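re: that chain from earlier
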Amino acid sequence: MVDSSTERRLFPRYCHDFKALINIDGDWVTTNCRDISGCGIRFISDLRPTLKTSIQVHIDNLGRFEGTVLRFEEDGFIVHLNASEFIMQQLADQLSRDFVGT
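^ sequence. v structure.
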């Protein structure tokens, strides 16, 4: 887990490599996600989906999500999950159980 003392986040962020599929313009593309929280995911990719568009995401062992492309990073892009607070909390709880101490 990343130290959140200097960050304002709704949910803790976990640094872990996951295999992921993202659907961009109807095509499923394999990529990796590096950081994940209950409300967002950082993907490591050369792809640059259009900002503020909705994309579908499938992450190994976590499931399928929909999110909005927020911004680009040097090595990828950030997606904010479009989910209810309940679903985001469930994801955060699962991440906490699975990755505390990793």
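Residues 4 and 12 are 7 Å apart (CA to CA).
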